[in-house]
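Progress against Task 2.4 (sequence-to-structure conversion) is shown through the following example record, which the project officer requested during the mid-term review.
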Amino acid sequence: MDIAALNDKIKQESAFVDLLMNEISKVIVGQKQMVERLIVGLLGNGHILLEGVPGLAKTLAIKTLASAMKAKYQRIQFTPDLLPADLIGTMIYNQKDGNFFIRKGPIFSNFILADEINRAPAKVQSALLEAMQERQITIGDQTFKLEEPFLVLATQNPIEQEGTYPLPEAQVDRFMLKVKISYPSREEELKIMKQNVDSVESIIQPVITPADIMNARKLVHDIYVDEKIEKYILDIVFATRSPKDFGLDKLSDLISYGASPRATINLALGAKAMAFIKRRGYVIPEDVRGICLDVLRHRIAVTYEAEAEELTSENVIQEILNKVEVP
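Structure tokens generated for the chain above:
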């Protein structure tokens, strides 16, 4: 298919994005970037780690998205005493017939909100990891495929670290995006206050189905990426591993280790999903730059020297974006 025909097809097929965002905006005030990233994760078949202080509508956003899609939704509050069986299900003995039967856990849904994921111990996080990576769950000697679309939205609170279990780097790498959520503006907060004090409740109408999302995912893969854009993505990722090769000598002592190959894949997929949201059949450099911070911020580890200078992975990414030549 030529670019012009593909572009026209994407314009037609991506019309539901505006409907979805308008429906979500009935409940979620502001937070446009968070809602956009949720749709990117949905289209790119990737999971999202949300970081923000309490009360910023993280839970409400995923619940509203599920309602607007007529999809199954489950919220799981992660606590230190949570067991893998509480998440995936378990085998229960039936005394009447003397047999075991399987009771499926809450993870058998389309949308999973793993609230405060870093409060649960490693064995629970590893149970979630199989579901995220393999899209399947093993209970006893039986393996069950999870229903598509399947999206894990994990939240973590950055201000309260007592009694938490830091997520292992290998697990964090499984998240397509790490999105940081900030406070709303004064005008947005006024609207939030009025909306919640008012007795009229906004009713979310389903505007798309899970089948529509599965079709959209196929189209996202068809979006055209020029060789120059592919090279640009590789340059960004390789600059996190070998900064000296890109004239970024000062970053050598600040980066402990760079982004994994998953970063390259997710950067390309995220850029394609951004192009789809913008109703284009091709990727432009702004799509890559727009999603870059969310794809890379959790995949770059900074050294003690960087921490001493109060520099974060975001500062490193910004330096790389400023230096790497844009096609």
